[in-house]
Design a protein that fits this description.
3 helices, five-stranded antiparallel sheet
Length: 345
């Protein structure tokens, strides 16, 4: 029997609908001639020297500090200390003030403190006079950190040509009043939130590709089940349960199927569960243990762990269960496969 209940606490709606609370006013948002300042795919790329002013106005220093932490964490930027800046923050940008310092990008801006925060950001290439990014942002004061992460994403994309990670969320399992529960936090470990969904054991939370759902495993009433948490309608629903141990794997790219491992027939095998009709398709049947399915970004392949060769190793197969082959041969215990976003590793 399917279980379903409503998540009553409305504060969690804020987490996933925060984008709707931002309003953006564009004056200029272009990377000049699509110039790539940092090639993140190049192993020989050097760190980009960047100057980041404290934004003028209320909360300007706090927002600037978040920008610095976000950008420096990537390992792609070399932050130049403010003590070396020649230009006054309110002074018009002049490339000649920066070239002798070897700084290649400069961030300036201001914050207007009214009912909401209104932030103006200008990102300059020191080889040109005009900004490569000029943008205004507006959000409630309680969304200051999310606003700063959003600005960091835009700066990162303007300089690398790739989307940033700074608005992403991390789902994890931790203690919750004697049980195990699902928690969420920002990518940088800030703003940890308890979701109020728990069981004696909770494992393997996985995000849907569009970030609106999480599937995870939980032992409740002495039975292991897969549960789907849908943030759009704020409900949790049990989508699969059986005897044995059932562990959630990745979503498929369309978000309509999930991979899972289940020992309902004895040793753990891999299956695909349709979230539309809850139909189950078996993919593996081996004498060994097959677990931890990781679906490739294009949905065509599944990496998984199996001890069919005598020790836990990573295997790869097509998403229909065919063409199974071992891919790890060093070490006697290889587990937890995970794909790169592009699916090339």
């Amino acid at each position: 029997m399917k279980e379903k209940f409503k998540i009553q606490n409305s504060k969690f709606k804020i987490i996933f609908f925060i984008l709707a609370l931002f309003t953006f006013h564009f004056s200029l948002f272009t990377a000049v001639e699509a110039k790539i300042y940092i090639d993140i795919t190049s192993p020989s790329s050097k760190k980009l020297p960047i100057a980041i002013y404290d934004l003028e106005g209320a909360l300007g220093k706090e927002i600037s500090e978040i920008l610095r932490e976000d950008l420096i964490f990537t390992g792609l930027f070399m932050y130049i200390d403010k003590a070396s800046y020649i230009e006054d923050p309110a002074q018009a940008f002049n490339p000649q003030n920066w070239k002798p310092l070897g700084i290649e990008a400069v961030i300036k801006g201001s914050v207007s403190d009214g009912k909401d925060l209104a932030v103006t950001i200008n990102l300059y290439d020191t080889s040109e006079v005009r900004p490569i990014l000029s943008k205004q942002y507006q959000a409630g004061k309680d969304l200051m950190r999310q606003l700063a992460h959003n600005i960091a994403n835009d700066i990162y994309q303007a300089l690398t040509g790739m989307p940033g990670i700074f608005r992403t969320k991390i789902a994890f399992v931790a203690e919750d009043d004697g049980d195990k529960g699902i928690y969420l936090m920002d990518w940088d470990g800030q703003q940890i939130r308890k979701m109020g969904l728990k069981g004696k054991l909770v494992l393997t939370p996985h995000w849907s590709p569009d970030g609106t759902k999480i599937v995870y495993s939980s032992e409740r009433g002495r039975q292991w089940g897969l549960y789907l948490l849908d943030f759009q309608i704020m409900t949790e629903k049990r989508v699969f349960a059986s005897k044995g141990i059932n562990m959630a794997g990745d979503f498929f790219p369309q978000g309509d199927k999930v991979a899972l491992s289940s020992s309902k027939e004895g040793t753990p095998d891999l299956f695909i569960l349709s979230l539309k009709d809850l139909a189950l398709k078996k993919l593996t049947s081996s004498y060994g243990i097959d677990v931890s399915p990781a679906v490739s970004p294009d949905g065509n392949h599944i990496a998984f762990v199996s001890d069919r060769g005598g020790s836990p190793q990573i295997y790869l197969m097509r998403s229909d269960g065919s063409d199974v082959r071992r891919v790890t041969f060093e070490g006697s215990y290889n587990t937890s496969p995970s794909w790169s976003p592009k699916g090339d590793r």
